[in-house]
Amino acid sequence: MKNSKGIMINLLGKKPGISPTRYSLLAGSCIIVLILLLFTGYIYKSALAELARQENINARLQASLEDYKVKSVTVETQQSLEQNMLAKQDSINQLQPFLVSHLEVLGEIEKSVPAGILLTELEVETSKAILKGYAPDHNEIARLLSGLRISSCFKSVIEVSSRYEEGTDEILFNIEMDWGEGSQ
Description:
single chain; alpha+beta; Gyrase A, domain 2; 2 domains; 4-stranded antiparallel β-sheet; 4 strands; 54% helix; rod-shaped
């Protein structure tokens, strides 16, 4: 038997192989796929550019946040200091009527010293004043003590010592007075 080639019967009337319509469809499909790939690439490139822009904005916002944190701590500290300062100013204003200055103490002593008394020493410390001097008699010392005790500057007035000096015919005295906060 001879080797026979197969017989092909074309009932549709089409030539074997790829028809031009199929070529058109295949080419159109390839073009559409290519366009879709280009479009996807463009979208991807746009998304990367947007990501870079957003990261830049995020970095600036982070820097601004750190700056605002520093500023807010500074503002809070300043407000706290202002509140403390106002509280201390209020305390000073409340205590001001009760405070006595050295000049007030000297003024009160000056008003209280009778004409016959000679002061030889005046020592004014933070809350105490010490007077030393000579008086012609005990009546003058009593007048001095009375004047000092009447004064609103002094808390207590005490005659520490007094003695008669025969050589001068005068009385040497020593008086201590407490003064300062709350003495009025």
